[in-house]
Every structure is written in C-alpha cells, then in structure tokens.
Amino acid sequence: MSYTITQDCIGCRLCLSTCPTGAIQPGESGQYRIDASLCNRCEGFYSVPQCMAICPANHACVPDAQDYWANWFVQYHRMVDQVRQADEVAYWDQWFDRYSQRLSHLLTERSPVAQT
Ligand code: SF4
Ligand code: SF4
Predict the structure, then answer these.
(1) Fewer CB within 10 Å, N or C, the chain?
(2) Mean pLDDT across the chain, nearest whole number?
(3) Closest residue CA from atom 4 of ligand 2
C-alpha cells in the first residue's frame, strides 16, 4: 500500500523535498501525484510517512488503502507514534498493547472463518 495525493492538494510543494524515494511528482492543475511504484511509505527512512506529516491541507496526502482495515491500522500506528513522543511512555505503551490485544481478539471472533 502506498500513499496518494487527493483533490484537496493545494500545490504548496512542501512534500516534494521530504519524500525519501522521489515518489512525488507534478500532476495536473498545479497539484501533485505519488508514483505508487516508488512510494514505500517511508519504511526504512522514517517512522511516519513524511508527505502526510508535513502536508498542511486536510486529507490531501492519505494512505491509498485497498481496504478499510489497512487504512485503519495506518492511522492507529500514527497515533501510537505521536503518543510515544509524549511523557508517560510506559503507561501508554501498556494501554495500547492491551487495546491492540483486545481488538485483535474481537476481530478474530467476528471474522468469517471464526463463524464457520
Ligand atoms: S509515504 Fe513517504 S515514500 Fe511515499 S510518497 Fe510519502 S514521503 Fe514519499
Ligand atoms: S504537501 Fe500536501 S498540499 Fe502541499 S503539494 Fe504536497 S500533497 Fe499537496
């Protein structure tokens, strides 16, 4: 899954220099686009996708999710990264670990495989 730039892009160009793989390129009408074959979500470079982190426009640079849950987990990990930068790291680590385990358990219970 790569990231993608939506119609909400205001063409500020801030994301161009932040992309470590050169995936962001000029598009149409002053907006930009992401070459999905070059975007690796900044893995190996940053813990958070830089285009999304720096983008000043709401929802202009978003995960190009093929399914709802892939998108959900991207947002989840983004929130975890933000919280981990705060004080009380041990408390939030434990909270998210328990939350993840509980959610994983619920998803397993509700999956079609579990119901058959
Ligand atoms: S997620 Fe990272 S690699 Fe992909 S376009 Fe954005 S900055 Fe570039
Ligand atoms: S940072 Fe956001 S608004 Fe600016 S060019 Fe990139 S996608 Fe568009």
Answers:
(1) C
(2) 84
(3) 12
